[in-house]
Amino acid sequence: MAFITLNKNNFFNILDIISKRSKAKDKIALVLKDNAYGHGLLEVASLAQEYGISRAVVQSVAEAKKIEDFFEYILVLADFPKEKSKKTRYTINDIKTIKQFPKNTKVELKVDTGMHRNGIAMSELEAAFEMIKKQELRLEAVFTHHGCADELGEFFDLQNRNFDEVKRSSKELAKKYGFGELRFHSCNSAALFRTENFDEDMARVGIAAYGCMQLPSAFDEKALKPVLSLFAKKISSRELKKGDRVGYGATYTADKDCVVSSYDFGYGDGFLRVCSNNYSTPNNIKLLGRISMDNSSFLSDENELLIFDDARVVAREAKTIGYEVLTSLKADIKRVLV
Ligand SMILES: *Cc1c(COP(=O)(O)O)cnc(C)c1O
Q1: Is 248 considered catalytic here?
Q2: Which residues line ligand 1 (CB under 6 A)?
Q3: Do domains 8-210 and 228-337 have the same CATH topology?
Q4: CATH classification code of 8-210
Q5: CA gap 144, 252 in Å, rounded
Q6: Has 33 been annotated as catalytic?
Q7: Dist. CA 231 → ligand 1 center (Å)
Q8: Between 155-177 and 125-134, two packed helices, what is the crossing angle to 10 degrees?
Q9: pLDDT at position 219
Q10: Where are the domains of the chain?
Q11: Which CATH superfamily hosts domain 228-337?
């Protein structure tokens, strides 16, 4: 069976680097949505706990529940409480949903500072504080999300300026409506690595922690080494004569006599099918023909093949981003710590 290895050394080195940037371990909120970016939710939660990370971010209550024992603080990005949980905080993504949170729920208010995806409008800030008060929710933080932190250009700075304004107003409103001191956070991975002298209360770090951040070359993230590698096992081998064809659609034609083997990693397991006929492994072994659901063929006779050790390389061939390559990996692939 195909399997994934998680490199603990690389992960801990990365967390050292991130802690330096965030100024403290407990300012890192590790983003674990989508099965920890395909790395395995419980495997990564357990490693993070061992390292001393106390905060996590997930999308849903179901995910939060699974990792409750590993963290002190869990931020749910888009869901509503199903039962009581001391550790969980819920995101307000839209002013119209404030009424849906039960009394005493710990909430964090997301403000749209320009990405126009989730969050209340900046002009709705006071109305939101008033409704949160009326609903008797426990407002702990105000945050925003960047749309362009991984691209050069002025949009990143514009959102930062907008969020500065949100912070100023929120501090006044917190006093006016009798909330305690608020926490503020805006940085994802790219934003944290672009920010000199980070001074917020927390950074929500996903892709950087997995060693697959992609920033414009003006920024150096080379010290972050990918955590995940994917290996596949041979199913069968055969000798081909020059002119023989391989796979569905017979799209590959052998240009000489060779040995080809099929390996147990296909698009049903998360291998992006657009890589068909257009990918070589880190050891330069060529993928031949179309990727099938549970198989792919390589010019190799090895029993075990390293398919990739850097999702960004696959992403480049597939004209997508490392995030998609990683989150495509199915949860039933075995994760092994190395
Ligand atoms: C996914 C997500 C993050 C993490 O982003 P990375 O680019 O992976 O660091 C942070 N904040 C929010 C709101 C997210 O949805």
Answers
A1: yes
A2: 31, 33, 77, 145, 188-190, 204-208
A3: no
A4: 3.20.20.10
A5: 48
A6: yes
A7: 27
A8: 40
A9: 72
A10: 8-210, 228-337
A11: Lyase, Ornithine Decarboxylase; Chain A, domain 1 (2.40.37.10)
